[in-house]
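This part of the workshop introduces the protein records we will be handling. To make this concrete, we reproduce a full record directly below.
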Amino acid sequence: MLPAEIAQAVKRIQFVTGRQVSDVMAGAYLSVFKGRGMEFDEVRPYVPGDDVRAIDWNVTARTGEPHVKRFVEERELTVMLLVDVSASQDFGSGRRSKLEAAVELSALLAMSAVENGDKVGMLLFHGGADLYIPPRKGGKHSLRIVREVLARGQNAAAGPADRGVMVAVPRAVRALWAKLRRRTTAPGAAGGDPRRATSIAAALEFCRQVLPRRAVLFLISDCLDDGYLQVLRHANRKHDVVAALITDPREAAMPPAGLVTLEDAETGRTRLVDTQSHAFRVELAARATERQKMLHDQLRATGMDLVVFDASASMVDPLLRFFRERERRHRR
């Protein structure tokens, strides 16, 4: 995608999502994510009148003098968008690809956060780190996030022939990512081309190390990866993790077009299937349903939310339903 095309796409997304945020999204976002209230600030010596429940017994035992924890009111949030730009995200059978749907969803979340005065940052990832933007405030910052998802997503989703693209992250960040990817890759797993593959575990571990305070993490991905659920649970202990699953209708249903050769976008493996076979179409639908149900049950068991987005449909409606459902849970 050329720079002029990216600029036009950013303007279009800004126009569409800006209206959606001002009309319906900002209020719903605010009702769910209001800040965490009190945040730890420092430890200071105890003075008469302090609440004894605030005594820090570890510091008291170490110093021999009573100390209490001091808290400050925290109203703003940090929102982090973890956007999967691996090769499988470039697939789309409808009016847009899963990657294009992820761009629009990222824009909605970024602009909602900025509208509420929160910080928003982004990590674009595939089998390696493509771009990390630290959390900041401001409308220009949210537009930069949209622009980078468009630009980097096109490069990261390209095939192995596009290896001349430079990874736009600092050297220290790349070194950290390489170490995390080695740590979170299952033994014996094939290396493959990192620009085609997906490593959700490394993305979550990366955010855990670079974000010192609790944040809201939106994992925007088709979740076509293995071995990341344990890391996801660990990340949710420190952060508020929301999984946004991007799907495409063809992942659950295919038209009866006869013999078709399917290629795995990330591994390159091919398979010849008979799409006219009733058994094949039934199995395809059953596997897609089972995958979503299993992921939903696994995340809900650890207190995490899963929001499913159809790349060919609206991004606003599922997001609003999620906000309203979560608000009802918080009121109980």
About this structure: The CA atoms of residues 233 and 301 lie 10 Å apart.
